[in-house]
Amino acid sequence: MIVIISDVNNEGVGKALYNYLISNNEEVEFISASERNIKPCYCCDGCTYKTYGKCVVRDDMDQILPIIIKGDIVVYTSPLIWGGFSYDIKKILDKTALIGNRFYKTRNKEIVKGTISNNKKIIGIGVSEIASKMEQSSFEYFLKEVGTIMNIEYLGKVVNPTITDDELQNLAREVLL
User: Fold this and answer.
1) Which H, E and C letters describe the chain, residue by residue?
2) How far is 156 from 153, CA to CA, in rounded Å?
3) What Å distances lie between residue 108 and 60, 90, 112, CA to CA?
4) Which of 1, 131, 132, 136 could hold 27 in an S-S bridge, CB 3.0 to 4.6 Å?
5) Alpha-carbon torsion 32, 173, 93, 99, what sign?
6) CA dist., res. 168 & res. 32, Å (int)
7) What is the pLDDT of residue 10?
8) Cβ(123)–Cβ(109) below 8 Å
């Protein structure tokens, strides 16, 4: 299953990708991050020491996390903000630490955590008309780091909000690879 989590401010690309994948008989779940009540991670360590694997702050992540866990591919679409994700997407990403293994290990001289989910690939799609090469590079690097820590495939990509049909098809192919 593919899970698309999109920021409402640039939901066009996320919705277009969702509709394209559905029309090609893919199993896809769409979540609008901006329409959810998600509190930020307070780094309280409650999920590690008090309620292992469960955030002590009750919010809509209680419904979103099980969907993310089931996803083979998780796609985050967001306006590109200084080479990163929007606040709404970042809150979800921070709380997905709950699905990480409890302890770190090393693999190929990198610190990895792994995941208890079905996730095999994480994709970040930054949406921008005017992204600099530095912003694009930072965004791609951030996804590399997340993928490395989770020990899964990753892809960071920046697209224009007025994505063409051909670009959408190419993007869908990259998601499914």
Assistant:
1) CEEEEECHHHHHHHHHHHHHHHHCCCCEEEEEHHHCCCCCCCCCCHHHHCCCCCCCCCCCHHHHHHHHHHCCEEEEEEECECCECCHHHHHHHHHHHHHECCCCEEECCEEECCECCCCCEEEEEEECCCCCHHHHHHHHHHHHHHHHHHCCEEEEEEECCCCCHHHHHHHHHHHHC
2) 11
3) 36, 27, 9
4) 1
5) positive
6) 19
7) 62
8) no
Angle, vertex CA 83, rays to CA 109 and CA 77, nearest 5: 95
pLDDT digits (tens, 9 = 90+) for 5-59: 999 766 789 999 999 999 999 999 999 998 899 999 998 888 878 887 789 999 9
Confidence at residue 100, expressed as pLDDT on a 0 to 100 scale: 82
Write down the residue that tokens 């095999």 correspond to.
120
The pTM score is: 0.93
CA dist., res. 7 & res. 86, Å (int): 7
Q: Considering only CA atoms, which of 168, 144, 173 is closest in space to residue 156?
A: 144
